[in-house]
């Protein structure tokens, strides 16, 4: 619980800092809303928000080593104008993400990257319940911010839960993506899960090098959505 509130407080600070940075970058304007050279002030950068678990929050690594921060680096290197917000919370389930989605969407979001369900899977939660929560989150996004795009992040099941459960769990994500016409990251932990050198001693959370792999996995799906259509 403490970790959850700490993460929420960090998100509030991040949102505030983002607004301050944008405000600091604005030139002084007169009554007409233009700077001294007659140019209108630049609009705030559209937000790419990552809603997720400890995998997204970057548990065990520095904040700038978590994959959302690495995505921001990729965005900047590509010369794209987006601001990443990391709204990952360690230990959160899909039900928890659903409970806080309205609060998160108080700020306009261009793209919401949804990584949830991993903790549900670790607890052996019913895949139908996970599917229902994810669908409800997507519905809330469409209701509150119709222009926002949702990217769903797929997740693999832990092998100790058995093949039957694992198959049902893993199919939740592509099924929901197909039903809603969403782009999907097929598997966040592809190339990382089960690789000792890319995971911390707990065998679950990626090292900084593992986070780079996660960023590459997400970037393949996210990048085309960020590039202006010709």
Explain the overall architecture:
- The protein is an alpha/beta fold and 230 residues long.
- The chain contains eight helices and five strands; from the N terminus they run H-E-H-H-E-H-E-H-H-E-H-E-H.
- It has one domain: Rossmann fold (3-Layer(aba) Sandwich).
- 48% of the residues lie in helices and 10% in strands.
- The protein has a five-stranded parallel beta sheet, with helices on both faces.
- Strand 4 (149-153), helix 7 (163-180) and strand 5 (184-185) form a beta-alpha-beta unit.
- The longest helix is centred in the first third of the chain and has 24 residues, at 2-25.
- The termini are far apart.
Strand order of the largest sheet: 2-1-3-4-5
Q: How far do the termini sit from each other? A: 46 Å
CATH class: Alpha Beta
Structural class: alpha/beta
How many DSSP E strands? 5
Report the principal-axis shape: globular
Element-by-element helix/strand order: HEHHEHEHHEHEH
User: Uncertain segments of ≥5 residues (pLDDT<50)?
Assistant: 1-33
What does the largest sheet look like? 5 strands, parallel
Radius of gyration computed on alpha carbons = 18 Å
Descriptors:
230 residues, globular, Rossmann fold, 5-stranded parallel β-sheet, disordered N terminus, single chain
């Amino acid at each position: 619980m403490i970790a959850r509130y700490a993460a929420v407080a960090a998100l509030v600070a991040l949102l505030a800092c983002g607004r301050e940075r944008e405000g600091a970058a604005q030139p002084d304007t007169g009554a007409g809303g233009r700077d001294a050279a007659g140019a209108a002030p630049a609009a705030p950068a559209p937000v790419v928000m990552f809603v997720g678990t400890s995998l997204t929050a970057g548990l065990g690594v520095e904040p700038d080593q978590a994959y959302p921060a690495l995505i921001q680096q990729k965005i900047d290197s590509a010369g794209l104008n987006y601001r990443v917000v990391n709204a990952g919370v360690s230990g959160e389930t899909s039900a928890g993400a659903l409970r806080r989605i309205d609060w998160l969407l108080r700020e306009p979001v261009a793209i919401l990257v949804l990584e949830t369900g991993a903790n549900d899977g670790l607890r052996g939660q019913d895949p139908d319940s996970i599917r229902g929560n994810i669908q409800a989150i997507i519905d809330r996004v469409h209701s509150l911010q119709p222009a926002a795009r949702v990217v769903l992040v797929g997740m693999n099941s832990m092998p100790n839960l058995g093949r039957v459960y694992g198959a049902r769990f893993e199919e939740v994500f592509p099924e929901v993506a197909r039903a809603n016409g969403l782009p999907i990251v097929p598997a966040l932990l592809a190339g990382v899960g089960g690789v000792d050198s890319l995971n911390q001693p707990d065998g679950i959370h990626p090292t900084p090098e593992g986070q780079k792999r996660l960023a590459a996995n997400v970037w393949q799906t996210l990048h085309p959505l960020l590039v202006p259509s010709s």
